[in-house]
Every structure is written in structure tokens, then in C-alpha cells.
Amino acid sequence: MRFGLTDEQKMMQEMARDFALKEIAPNLKEDEANHTFRPELVKKMAGLGFFGCGIPEEYGGNGFGFLESVILSEQIATVSGSWRLPFNMQNIGPAITVNKFGNETQKKRFIPDWISAESFGFFAITEPNSGSDVASMGTTATDRGDHWELNGQKMWISNAHVGDWGLVYAFTDKSQKYKGMTCFIVNLKGNDGIVTAPINTKLGLHCAPTGEIAFSAAKIPKDSVLGEVGQGFQICMWQLNNTRISCASGALGIGGGAIEAAIGYANERTQFGKKIGSYQMIQAQIADMVAEHEAAKLLVYQAAWLKDQQLPNQYQTSMAKLFASEAAVHAALDTMKIFGSYGFSTEYPAERFLRDAQSLRVVEGTSNIQKTIIAGMAMGDTVNR
Ligand SMILES: Cc1cc2nc3c(=O)[nH]c(=O)nc-3n(C[C@H](O)[C@H](O)[C@H](O)COP(=O)(O)OP(=O)(O)OC[C@H]3O[C@@H](n4cnc5c(N)ncnc54)[C@H](O)[C@@H]3O)c2cc1C
Q1: CATH code linked to domain 233-378
Q2: How far is the C-alpha of 102 from the C-alpha of 107, rounded, in Å?
């Protein structure tokens, strides 16, 4: 058993941290206030090879795996939770899924453009009336002979209004229940039947675009199907088990960022003639935050490592996502407490950590859903795959 990072992994860690501090941090306050998404930053991240993990070199892969992706995105999220999202949209979501289920033509056509950020990716599962219960979705795809026709609405979709090619899940045969769902590779741009709109009411992740997609008799080509017709639910669950690890690494980053801020403030702020960090109650808060953070890190790195070994990992991935996102929320809340009134101010970063961390309790399966998965496997009702 080996717990240390290799020199190469440490180098990647430093590179991502450096990027976040130089390229993201200087404009972050203003960008957060104005909800600014900077496409050029995604392209720069692509230029540094951030999105090639887990992808064969022939499609633009960088020779690294899930563990390296986690290490990179954790560092980005330490500075900004918003800027972790492109890892899922360009790499861990659509690209890795198409690499697993796509045919050769699809792999060559789509994966390199996601990895290089020529094309902004997305994956559309959630709908206004369908979230955790994915099989209750209402979007349909009807075979019209020479094309598929998409109808329905997707909601809370990252990159919706900035996205190019991505994955859309729809029912091709509702009577077959979850066996009647199919995954399609769809371009959101230049299609008369597709309308996208941003959601501007988000509590956090202000630099990460989120929106809605409406399909009304949207024509998409026959060769848009990923995998087999009727394989969509299986593909969706496989994809979520991967995108979940990226969320977990985001939580790790946000928690780490909050802890750094809390320690910095505790060592600086003086009350009753002493640094507040010298008081044992503040030290106890910091000790709890750090211990939870380190436990989360072990779970997240373990799950990523299992993925790279192609070993069963759903159980560990769900535990990592659950534990890391809950730990990030605890860390952000305690950071706010340590900052006192300044923790309640938007001038200081503590409240942003909380707003961003909360999103990770929800996305890619809520904490309740992770508990359902974990309990099912712990109790022997379902198998860890
Ligand atoms: C910032 C952001 C980005 C997102 N990006 C994407 C994206 O890119 N693509 C995409 O498809 N979706 C995306 N989502 C949607 C997200 O994945 C869903 O919101 C999430 O799956 C939960 O669905 P819901 O909101 O409909 O909640 P619901 O499923 O309605 O759940 C409501 C509550 O009930 C609980 N609950 C539901 N079922 C059970 C159960 N069986 N047992 C116990 N408790 C239960 C939940 O835990 C939750 O507390 C995003 C959401 C946000 C906030």
C-alpha cells in the first residue's frame, strides 16, 4: 500500500495550483459578482492538457488517469469551485463516456474536440420533474425514418447555453421503462428545434454556466445514438459513477480552500490580546475540519485509483462523493464561524465556500441517493461494480 504521490503527480498538482492562482484568482471576485464565465480559461486549461485524463492518446489523451484528473481538479477547486466544472464537461462526462460506448467514428469525431475545448461538452439528464428518479424523465426521441425527433425539456444542465456537442438522455420506448432509454450525442447549436437559456438564480458556482434546454421536434441524425438503442440508462449510471468522482474532488478542493482561509484568519485575527488561533475552541474546530478533510482525501483518491485499476468502485465512489461533499459543507460552515461577522460578509471568501460546497451535496446524485447506493451494497442487495 502506497499513499504518496509520484513526482509527476506532485508536478501536476503544482501546475494546477499555479494556474488557479495566476489565471483564476485575480479576477475571481469580479467574475463571481458578475456571474462571468470565461471560455478562454477553459481553452487554456485544455492547452495545459488538463482534460486528457483517462483517454487514449490517439483521441487526445494525456496518458494519465482518474487519479491525476482528481489531483488537478482538486487544486482548481481550492481556489474556485466554479472552475472545477470544465473537468466534467470536457473530460470525465462526455469524453470518457463516448470512449467507453462510442463507435470508432464517434470517438474520432467528438473526443479530441472535447479534450482540446474546441467543443464545449455537457450532459443532459435532469428535467423539471425528474431528478433523482432518472427513469421518470419525460424527454422522448422518436424514430422518424431518416432522423430522430427529440421532444422535452432539460433543466439544471451545466454548460447548456454555452455547450456545443454533448450527451442527451431520452426515452425511445417508454413502455420498456429504464430499458427504453437511449443516449444521443447532440449539438445544441444551429438546430431550429433546440432552444437554450441560462439559469441566473443560482446560489453559487457563479462562474460556471448552468441552464435549460428545450427540444421541440428537434431533428437529429440517425447516427447520433451512443451505444445501442435502449442502453441509455446503463450508460447514464456508468457516466454518473465517473462524474461523481470529479464532484468529490471539487468538494475536496472547496473544503481545502475553506480550511486554508480559516487557518490564515485564525493566525491573524487578535481578540482579548491574543491570536484567536491560540484559543482551544478555535483549534478544536480546525482539528475537526482537517481530520475530516484528510479522511475525505483518502476516500476520493482511493476511488479514483480503483477506477484506474478498472476494479469495482461504485461503493467507494459514492462514499467518496458523500463524505467529501458533507465535509466541504462542514469546513465552510466552521470557516464562517471562525471569520465571525466577516464570515457573514460577501467581501470575504468564507460564504462563497459554503454556497459552492452545497451544490456538491446535490449534483450527480444527492447525499440521500449516495446513501441509498452505499447501503444497498453494504447490505448485499446490490453488487459493487
Ligand atoms: C449547479 C448545478 C449543476 C447541475 N448540472 C447538471 C448537469 O450538468 N446535468 C444534469 O443532468 N443535471 C445537473 N444538475 C441537476 C442535479 O443533478 C439534480 O438537481 C440532482 O440530481 C437532484 O435532483 P432534483 O433537484 O430534481 O431533486 P429531487 O430528486 O427532486 O430530490 C429532492 C429531495 O428528495 C430527496 N430524495 C429523492 N429521492 C429520494 C429517495 N429515493 N430516498 C431519499 N431521498 C430522496 C433528495 O435527496 C432531495 O433531498 C445540476 C444541478 C445543479 C444545482
Answers
A1: 1.20.140.10
A2: 6
